[in-house]
Write a structure and sequence with these properties.
The protein is built from eight helices and 18 strands. The protein has 355 residues and is of the alpha+beta class. It has one domain: Deoxyribonuclease I, Chain A (4-Layer Sandwich), CATH 3.60.10. The strands form four sheets. Strands 1, 2, 3, 4, 14, 15 and 18 form a seven-stranded mixed sheet that branches. A hairpin with a 2-residue loop joins β11 and β12. The longest helix has 22 residues.
């Protein structure tokens, strides 16, 4: 009889452990570094990524790229014991490349669904969201255009003609529920730093996201908000710290602030990409106070790296350049114009929320 009781108790503990684990939800972001198909789209600037283009972007290279992206997503799932509930992505050409990605053998069993809008970016790249429908219940989505707006508090360096010509990625907002709780997920790829420019443009991007998020908090009281993307800025830059109200600790947050777990990480030497000997964290995920300070019994961001950090930068040896000029940096698809068969010039990042 005692043996039977012990067995039942063990099974109950195991079941409780599995149920607790199933209440952990991984939410992440990955810049896929120019995931283009091989077909010419007259509406997009995809000339480099054609079989006869500068990159000689053949079907073989395209399939290699898809395999590599799927491998990273699968490796993250192996590490976490589960696939991402939500994975935001950037630098993708269209819906077709996402359909090809989610059908890769490595990750087909995740059954990822896609939210994507064609945007106005002159390079022809967009942001998108992949989600597991068993865990995230989709309600609505919106492609938020980048506008300069009369309400902006940013001082712009562009004249009116330059503003009229300027085009960049829209911000994607997806509203749904996880475990019955409302979430709004924002996916962004803020304007480039090419030529050392765009600080004001990225500040405006942060402002657009923040203003929309505040309206969502009014429209859906108690909603939990996650902002993710390639910010082309570090966590301490104005776009994140001032215009998106990103704070380093949960304790210092006000109700309308965001918690940025990657601010403390960059101060301690972590990076998601490297440039000229300097590590940066452009790939950030921020959460609103409702998600950061949720009471027990509600979904809440949790520490995941040695019980110290709330964010993780995912890197494995196969994702890292092992030798040469870019040693220790992310192993990218092209290097100095040559196809090297790598993964991305960014490492993915993620957070975990649970009850």
């Amino acid at each position: 009889m005692k043996k039977a009781i012990y067995i039942i108790a063990a099974l109950l503990l195991l079941t409780q452990g599995v149920q607790a684990q199933e209440r952990n939800y991984v939410i992440g972001f990955y810049n896929l570094e120019n995931l283009f198909d091989i077909y010419d789209d007259p509406a997009k600037n995809d000339d480099e990524f054609l079989p006869d283009g500068a990159n000689k972007w053949t079907e073989k290279k395209y399939k290699k790229k898809l395999h590599n992206m799927a491998k990273v997503i699968k490796e993250m799932a192996n590490d976490n014991g589960r696939y991402h509930t939500i994975l935001g992505v950037s630098e993708i050409e269209n819906r077709l490349v996402l359909e090809d990605l989610v059908s890769q053998p490595e990750i087909a069993d995740a059954n990822y669904q896609i939210v994507h809008y064609d945007g106005p970016d002159r390079r022809g790249v967009d942001v998108a969201l992949l989600y597991k429908p068993e865990q995230f219940k989709y309600i609505e989505s919106e492609s938020i255009p980048y506008t300069f707006g009369p309400d902006s508090k940013v001082e712009f360096t562009l004249d009116q003609e330059a503003m009229d010509y300027f085009r960049t990625r829209d911000v994607l907002m997806v509203h749904g529920t996880i475990d019955g709780e409302h979430f709004a997920i924002y996916v962004t790829h803020l304007p480039s730093r090419v030529g050392g420019k765009g600080q004001d443009l990225r500040a405006r991007g942060g402002e657009i996201i923040y203003n929309h998020a505040m309206k969502m908090m009014e429209r859906v009281p108690g909603i939990k908000i996650v902002v993710m993307g390639d910010m082309n800025d570090d966590p301490f830059d104005d776009s994140m710290a001032l215009y998106l109200h990103g704070r380093e600790t949960i304790e210092e947050m006000q109700p309308e602030d965001f918690f940025n777990p990657f601010l403390s990480m960059i101060k301690n030497g972590y990076g998601s990409l490297g440039y000229q000997g300097v590590w940066c964290i452009y790939d950030q995920i921020l959460v609103n106070s409702t998600l950061a300070t949720a009471p027990e019994g509600g979904l809440k961001i949790r520490k995941i790296v040695k019980d110290t950090y709330y964010g993780r930068i995912f890197r494995k040896p196969f994702m890292v350049t092992q030798r040469g000029q870019y040693k220790d940096y992310p192993f990218r698809t092209f290097s100095n114009g040559a196809f090297v068969g790598g993964f991305s010039d960014h490492f993915p990042t993620y957070i975990v929320v649970s009850k």
